[in-house]
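Board notes (copied after class):
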Amino acid sequence: MSTRISLDDLDHKIIERLGHDARVSNREIGREFDLTEGTIRSRLKRLLDNRVIRVAAVTNANRLRNPILAYLWVEADSAADIERVAESLASLPEIGFVATTLGRADVLAMTLVENGNELTDFLHQTIDKIPGVRRVRYSLGQNFIKHDYRWCALVD
């Protein structure tokens, strides 16, 4: 179980450095900050153990053949169904983001598809079969203008 920890300037500098290149060695970071490799290693261990950061590979959507970002605006049958619908969506490997929302819909989910047929099949064969889903509306992202990988959420 993780607890909240205070982050100091060094923690923030390490996180920022890893945001530019997560494969950089502890020794290299230590050299850049005039610290020992052991200091950096222990700081990273603390950040990882307390789930402040995690190391993950992020897909560069621009490298897909024809990436289409689909925003799925999901309405639940009732307020009691919202969390269950959100959890069901989050469990799907095709879905990369899920949030409950106020306003336009009850849940927003995002997925990458390569064509309209793939999206249609996914909506009808998977999303529509989730208990508690009343309706799904979707929007398609046309062009990726900015995608800051550092916004990838830590969810667990």
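Comment from the instructor: The longest strand covers residues 68-76. The helical segments are 9-20, 26-33, 37-49, 82-90, 116-125.
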